[in-house]
Design a protein that fits this description.
It contains no helices and 9 strands. By secondary structure, the chain is mostly beta strands. The termini are far apart. InterPro entries: RmlC-like_jellyroll, RmlC_Cupin_sf.
């Protein structure tokens, strides 16, 4: 039987951004993200659709079209392929990114 682990255990860092693989399956991957207050996940794109789920804290998600939204615990944002986007921490935040 596998031991229960907390998301905090994945991110042993004081850096403003930490990204760790939480689970890798046959067809996809889930990453755990820790974005500190005022931390930034820099502008980037994805080649496949993704979903970003806010677990704790509060972040702003923005994309190149000018779309902007605030994600709080329980909120999620779908991310379309080939659209530049970035995420800024409004509070210390934990998120899950599923592709």
């Amino acid at each position: 039987m596998t031991e229960i682990t907390h998301l905090n255990a994945l991110h042993k860092t004081d850096k403003p951004l930490s990204v760790k693989v939480l689970f890798k399956g046959e067809e996809g991957v889930t990453r755990s993200l820790l974005i500190k207050k005022d931390g930034l996940l820099p502008e980037h794109t994805t080649s496949i659709p993704a979903i970003l789920v806010c677990v704790t804290g509060k972040v702003t998600y923005e994309d190149e079209s000018g779309y902007q939204t605030v994600l709080e615990p329980g909120n999620f944002q779908t991310i379309e392929p080939n659209i530049k986007h970035w995420v800024k921490g409004l509070d210390d935040s934990q998120l899950l990114l599923m592709k």
